[in-house]
Amino acid sequence: MPTFKEKLANLARTAWRRTRYRRGIYFCIILAVWLTIVPPVYVTYLYQGGEAHTTHRLPLDINGRALPADTPTANLPADRVELTLVAEQADLTKHKVDYYMEATPFGKYRGGSNSDLAVGLTAYYGPKDVVYKAGNRMAVANFKIPVLGYPRMFPFDQYAGRFEVTLLETASLANGSSTPTSVPFIIRAYSDIQLVVVSTTLSTLDDYPGMIIAEIVAKRTPVTLGFCFVVIIIMWGLALTVATLAFQLVVWRTDFAGPLIIAAVTLMFSLPGLRNAQPGVPALGCASDMLSYFCLNPAAALTDPKRHVLLFLKRILRNCCFQ
After folding, report:
1. Which of 1, 194, 246, 274 has a C-alpha 20 to 30 A away from that of 15?
2. Residue 98, exposed/middle/buried by CB under 10 A (0-12, 13-18, 19+)?
3. Rounded-to-integer distance, Cα 68 and Cα 81, Å
Protein backbone atom coordinates (compact mmCIF):
# COMPACT_ATOMS: atom_id res chain seq x y z
CA MET A 1 0.00 0.00 0.00
CA PRO A 2 1.70 3.30 -1.10
CA THR A 3 2.08 6.00 1.51
CA PHE A 4 0.74 9.52 1.21
CA LYS A 5 4.14 10.89 0.19
CA GLU A 6 4.50 8.25 -2.52
CA LYS A 7 1.01 9.06 -3.85
CA LEU A 8 1.86 12.74 -3.89
CA ALA A 9 5.16 12.09 -5.70
CA ASN A 10 3.40 9.92 -8.29
CA LEU A 11 0.77 12.60 -8.82
CA ALA A 12 3.47 15.23 -9.32
CA ARG A 13 5.34 13.06 -11.84
CA THR A 14 2.13 12.35 -13.75
CA ALA A 15 1.21 16.05 -13.85
CA TRP A 16 4.70 17.01 -15.01
CA ARG A 17 4.61 14.51 -17.90
CA ARG A 18 1.40 16.04 -19.26
CA THR A 19 1.89 19.23 -21.24
CA ARG A 20 -1.24 21.03 -20.09
CA TYR A 21 -0.47 20.39 -16.43
CA ARG A 22 3.12 21.51 -16.93
CA ARG A 23 1.88 24.76 -18.48
CA GLY A 24 -0.37 25.26 -15.49
CA ILE A 25 2.59 24.83 -13.15
CA TYR A 26 4.59 27.38 -15.15
CA PHE A 27 1.67 29.79 -15.00
CA CYS A 28 1.37 29.42 -11.22
CA ILE A 29 5.11 30.04 -10.77
CA ILE A 30 5.01 33.17 -12.95
CA LEU A 31 1.90 34.41 -11.14
CA ALA A 32 3.56 33.87 -7.75
CA VAL A 33 6.66 35.81 -8.85
CA TRP A 34 4.46 38.62 -10.21
CA LEU A 35 2.46 38.85 -6.97
CA THR A 36 5.69 38.88 -4.97
CA ILE A 37 7.28 41.76 -6.91
CA VAL A 38 4.69 43.99 -8.62
CA PRO A 39 2.13 44.78 -5.83
CA PRO A 40 4.77 45.64 -3.18
CA VAL A 41 6.62 47.88 -5.65
CA TYR A 42 3.38 49.63 -6.61
CA VAL A 43 2.35 50.17 -2.98
CA THR A 44 5.82 51.56 -2.20
CA TYR A 45 5.49 53.91 -5.17
CA LEU A 46 2.13 55.23 -3.94
CA TYR A 47 3.55 56.16 -0.53
CA GLN A 48 6.64 57.96 -1.80
CA GLY A 49 6.57 61.76 -1.62
CA GLY A 50 3.33 63.66 -1.17
CA GLU A 51 1.51 64.01 2.11
CA ALA A 52 2.29 60.55 3.48
CA HIS A 53 5.80 61.28 4.75
CA THR A 54 6.47 65.01 4.56
CA THR A 55 3.56 66.77 6.24
CA HIS A 56 4.44 69.13 9.08
CA ARG A 57 2.16 71.55 10.93
CA LEU A 58 3.17 74.41 13.21
CA PRO A 59 0.87 77.16 14.62
CA LEU A 60 1.88 80.45 16.27
CA ASP A 61 -0.02 82.30 19.00
CA ILE A 62 -0.75 86.04 19.16
CA ASN A 63 2.71 86.64 20.66
CA GLY A 64 4.48 84.81 17.85
CA ARG A 65 5.33 81.81 20.05
CA ALA A 66 4.98 78.26 18.79
CA LEU A 67 2.00 76.19 19.86
CA PRO A 68 1.99 72.37 19.94
CA ALA A 69 1.65 70.92 16.45
CA ASP A 70 -1.48 68.98 17.44
CA THR A 71 -3.33 72.05 18.81
CA PRO A 72 -7.01 71.78 17.79
CA THR A 73 -8.35 74.41 15.42
CA ALA A 74 -10.77 75.64 18.10
CA ASN A 75 -7.83 76.57 20.36
CA LEU A 76 -5.98 78.57 17.69
CA PRO A 77 -6.14 82.39 17.64
CA ALA A 78 -9.35 83.57 15.98
CA ASP A 79 -7.44 86.32 14.16
CA ARG A 80 -4.92 84.40 12.11
CA VAL A 81 -3.72 83.49 8.62
CA GLU A 82 -3.40 79.87 7.49
CA LEU A 83 -0.48 79.16 5.15
CA THR A 84 -0.03 76.06 3.00
CA LEU A 85 3.55 75.45 1.85
CA VAL A 86 3.93 72.96 -1.01
CA ALA A 87 7.15 71.75 -2.64
CA GLU A 88 6.08 71.32 -6.26
CA GLN A 89 9.36 70.75 -8.11
CA ALA A 90 12.98 69.95 -7.36
CA ASP A 91 15.89 70.43 -9.75
CA LEU A 92 18.65 68.91 -7.67
CA THR A 93 21.20 69.25 -10.47
CA LYS A 94 20.76 73.04 -10.22
CA HIS A 95 20.37 72.92 -6.42
CA LYS A 96 16.86 74.41 -6.44
CA VAL A 97 13.53 73.45 -4.87
CA ASP A 98 10.41 75.24 -6.12
CA TYR A 99 7.70 76.07 -3.58
CA TYR A 100 4.37 77.80 -3.69
CA MET A 101 2.54 79.31 -0.72
CA GLU A 102 -1.22 79.63 -0.37
CA ALA A 103 -2.67 81.95 2.29
CA THR A 104 -6.17 82.22 3.76
CA PRO A 105 -7.09 84.96 6.31
CA PHE A 106 -9.43 84.50 9.29
CA GLY A 107 -10.92 86.76 11.93
CA LYS A 108 -10.16 90.47 11.67
CA TYR A 109 -7.87 89.86 8.69
CA ARG A 110 -10.77 88.53 6.62
CA GLY A 111 -12.91 91.08 4.80
CA GLY A 112 -16.58 90.21 5.04
CA SER A 113 -17.79 86.86 3.74
CA ASN A 114 -15.10 86.68 1.05
CA SER A 115 -11.45 85.75 1.36
CA ASP A 116 -10.39 89.35 0.75
CA LEU A 117 -7.97 90.93 3.18
CA ALA A 118 -9.27 93.53 5.59
CA VAL A 119 -5.74 94.55 6.63
CA GLY A 120 -2.68 94.88 4.41
CA LEU A 121 0.01 92.29 5.15
CA THR A 122 3.65 91.82 4.19
CA ALA A 123 5.10 88.32 4.03
CA TYR A 124 8.70 87.18 3.86
CA TYR A 125 9.08 83.74 2.26
CA GLY A 126 12.79 83.06 2.23
CA PRO A 127 14.34 85.33 -0.44
CA LYS A 128 10.94 86.63 -1.62
CA ASP A 129 8.94 89.53 -0.18
CA VAL A 130 5.21 89.52 -0.89
CA VAL A 131 2.88 92.46 -0.19
CA TYR A 132 -0.80 91.60 0.19
CA LYS A 133 -2.96 94.71 -0.23
CA ALA A 134 -6.15 95.25 1.74
CA GLY A 135 -9.31 94.56 -0.24
CA ASN A 136 -7.63 91.95 -2.44
CA ARG A 137 -7.29 88.21 -2.11
CA MET A 138 -4.02 86.70 -0.98
CA ALA A 139 -2.53 85.43 -4.24
CA VAL A 140 -0.39 82.31 -4.45
CA ALA A 141 3.31 83.12 -4.09
CA ASN A 142 5.96 81.11 -5.97
CA PHE A 143 9.60 81.11 -4.93
CA LYS A 144 12.78 79.05 -5.23
CA ILE A 145 14.93 77.89 -2.33
CA PRO A 146 18.60 76.97 -2.89
CA VAL A 147 19.77 73.67 -1.42
CA LEU A 148 23.27 72.34 -0.91
CA GLY A 149 24.27 68.82 -1.90
CA TYR A 150 26.56 66.72 -4.09
CA PRO A 151 25.03 65.54 -7.41
CA ARG A 152 28.05 63.33 -8.03
CA MET A 153 26.74 60.98 -5.32
CA PHE A 154 23.66 60.15 -7.45
CA PRO A 155 21.51 58.15 -6.71
CA PHE A 156 22.60 58.39 -3.06
CA ASP A 157 22.77 62.20 -3.07
CA GLN A 158 21.06 64.26 -0.38
CA TYR A 159 20.46 68.01 -0.21
CA ALA A 160 19.69 70.43 2.61
CA GLY A 161 18.56 74.04 2.88
CA ARG A 162 16.55 76.42 5.06
CA PHE A 163 14.52 79.61 4.86
CA GLU A 164 12.39 81.86 7.10
CA VAL A 165 8.68 82.61 6.99
CA THR A 166 7.39 85.83 8.61
CA LEU A 167 4.04 87.61 8.33
CA LEU A 168 3.66 91.26 9.44
CA GLU A 169 1.04 94.00 9.20
CA THR A 170 2.03 96.45 6.47
CA ALA A 171 0.78 99.49 8.45
CA SER A 172 3.22 98.80 11.27
CA LEU A 173 6.08 98.68 8.78
CA ALA A 174 4.98 101.91 7.10
CA ASN A 175 4.99 103.73 10.45
CA GLY A 176 8.62 102.80 10.97
CA SER A 177 7.92 100.98 14.21
CA SER A 178 10.90 99.20 15.75
CA THR A 179 8.59 96.33 16.71
CA PRO A 180 6.31 95.62 13.73
CA THR A 181 3.04 93.87 14.49
CA SER A 182 3.41 90.16 13.75
CA VAL A 183 0.42 88.22 12.48
CA PRO A 184 -0.50 84.90 14.16
CA PHE A 185 -0.42 82.19 11.53
CA ILE A 186 -0.36 78.44 11.12
CA ILE A 187 1.69 76.80 8.40
CA ARG A 188 1.36 73.34 6.89
CA ALA A 189 4.15 71.92 4.73
CA TYR A 190 3.62 69.32 2.02
CA SER A 191 5.61 67.76 -0.78
CA ASP A 192 4.15 66.87 -4.17
CA ILE A 193 7.18 65.63 -6.14
CA GLN A 194 7.21 62.23 -7.78
CA LEU A 195 10.89 61.26 -7.91
CA VAL A 196 12.22 63.19 -4.90
CA VAL A 197 11.26 63.13 -1.24
CA VAL A 198 11.33 66.69 0.13
CA SER A 199 10.93 66.81 3.90
CA THR A 200 10.20 70.29 5.28
CA THR A 201 10.64 70.56 9.06
CA LEU A 202 9.20 73.63 10.79
CA SER A 203 10.58 75.20 13.96
CA THR A 204 10.84 78.56 15.78
CA LEU A 205 13.57 80.62 17.43
CA ASP A 206 13.07 81.95 20.97
CA ASP A 207 14.87 85.19 20.15
CA TYR A 208 12.72 85.91 17.08
CA PRO A 209 9.01 85.54 17.85
CA GLY A 210 6.71 85.46 14.86
CA MET A 211 9.29 83.76 12.64
CA ILE A 212 9.21 80.12 11.51
CA ILE A 213 12.31 78.36 10.22
CA ALA A 214 11.70 75.80 7.47
CA GLU A 215 14.52 73.26 7.10
CA ILE A 216 14.60 71.23 3.86
CA VAL A 217 16.01 67.75 3.26
CA ALA A 218 15.68 66.40 -0.29
CA LYS A 219 16.71 62.94 -1.45
CA ARG A 220 15.78 60.32 -4.04
CA THR A 221 12.80 58.08 -3.42
CA PRO A 222 13.30 54.32 -2.89
CA VAL A 223 11.51 53.78 -6.21
CA THR A 224 14.17 55.89 -7.97
CA LEU A 225 16.95 53.99 -6.19
CA GLY A 226 15.41 50.65 -7.17
CA PHE A 227 15.09 51.68 -10.82
CA CYS A 228 18.72 52.84 -10.89
CA PHE A 229 19.86 49.51 -9.46
CA VAL A 230 17.86 47.66 -12.14
CA VAL A 231 19.54 49.75 -14.86
CA ILE A 232 22.97 49.06 -13.38
CA ILE A 233 22.28 45.30 -13.28
CA ILE A 234 21.07 45.33 -16.89
CA MET A 235 24.20 47.20 -18.01
CA TRP A 236 26.44 44.69 -16.25
CA GLY A 237 24.47 41.81 -17.75
CA LEU A 238 24.83 43.20 -21.29
CA ALA A 239 28.54 43.84 -20.87
CA LEU A 240 29.25 40.40 -19.42
CA THR A 241 27.20 38.76 -22.18
CA VAL A 242 29.20 40.49 -24.92
CA ALA A 243 32.47 39.74 -23.13
CA THR A 244 31.52 36.05 -22.88
CA LEU A 245 30.63 35.87 -26.58
CA ALA A 246 33.91 37.57 -27.50
CA PHE A 247 35.90 35.16 -25.32
CA GLN A 248 34.22 32.12 -26.87
CA LEU A 249 34.68 33.51 -30.38
CA VAL A 250 38.38 34.36 -30.03
CA VAL A 251 39.70 31.82 -27.50
CA TRP A 252 37.47 28.81 -28.02
CA ARG A 253 36.89 29.52 -31.73
CA THR A 254 33.19 28.90 -31.31
CA ASP A 255 30.96 29.71 -34.29
CA PHE A 256 27.91 31.87 -33.63
CA ALA A 257 25.11 32.98 -35.90
CA GLY A 258 25.73 36.38 -37.49
CA PRO A 259 22.66 38.09 -36.01
CA LEU A 260 23.74 37.03 -32.52
CA ILE A 261 27.12 38.76 -32.82
CA ILE A 262 25.61 41.87 -34.41
CA ALA A 263 22.93 42.04 -31.72
CA ALA A 264 25.57 41.74 -28.99
CA VAL A 265 27.61 44.57 -30.51
CA THR A 266 24.48 46.73 -30.86
CA LEU A 267 23.63 46.16 -27.20
CA MET A 268 27.01 47.56 -26.20
CA PHE A 269 26.17 50.83 -27.95
CA SER A 270 22.91 51.01 -25.98
CA LEU A 271 24.78 51.54 -22.69
CA PRO A 272 24.73 55.38 -22.93
CA GLY A 273 20.97 55.26 -23.51
CA LEU A 274 20.48 53.00 -20.50
CA ARG A 275 22.66 55.26 -18.41
CA ASN A 276 20.58 58.34 -19.34
CA ALA A 277 17.32 56.46 -18.64
CA GLN A 278 17.94 56.81 -14.90
CA PRO A 279 15.50 59.45 -13.58
CA GLY A 280 17.23 62.70 -12.66
CA VAL A 281 20.72 61.48 -13.55
CA PRO A 282 23.25 64.38 -13.59
CA ALA A 283 26.18 64.87 -15.94
CA LEU A 284 28.73 62.14 -16.54
CA GLY A 285 30.83 61.26 -13.50
CA CYS A 286 28.33 60.43 -10.73
CA ALA A 287 28.37 57.44 -8.38
CA SER A 288 26.16 55.27 -10.60
CA ASP A 289 28.66 55.77 -13.44
CA MET A 290 31.47 54.52 -11.21
CA LEU A 291 29.39 51.48 -10.30
CA SER A 292 28.54 50.54 -13.87
CA TYR A 293 29.24 52.75 -16.87
CA PHE A 294 32.92 53.52 -16.27
CA CYS A 295 33.61 49.92 -15.27
CA LEU A 296 32.02 48.60 -18.46
CA ASN A 297 33.94 50.83 -20.87
CA PRO A 298 37.24 48.95 -20.29
CA ALA A 299 35.35 45.68 -20.74
CA ALA A 300 34.04 46.93 -24.08
CA ALA A 301 37.53 48.02 -25.11
CA LEU A 302 39.06 44.67 -24.15
CA THR A 303 36.43 42.67 -26.01
CA ASP A 304 36.84 44.95 -29.09
CA PRO A 305 33.49 44.16 -30.79
CA LYS A 306 34.61 45.44 -34.21
CA ARG A 307 37.51 43.00 -34.25
CA HIS A 308 35.23 40.11 -33.47
CA VAL A 309 32.77 41.08 -36.19
CA LEU A 310 35.58 41.34 -38.73
CA LEU A 311 36.89 37.95 -37.63
CA PHE A 312 33.43 36.47 -38.00
CA LEU A 313 33.03 37.93 -41.51
CA LYS A 314 36.49 36.63 -42.45
CA ARG A 315 35.43 33.11 -41.48
CA ILE A 316 32.27 33.39 -43.57
CA LEU A 317 34.22 34.54 -46.63
CA ARG A 318 36.84 31.80 -46.19
CA ASN A 319 34.18 29.13 -45.91
CA CYS A 320 32.29 30.44 -48.92
CA CYS A 321 35.40 30.75 -51.16
CA PHE A 322 37.19 27.54 -50.31
CA GLN A 323 34.34 25.05 -49.96
Report:
1. 1
2. middle
3. 17
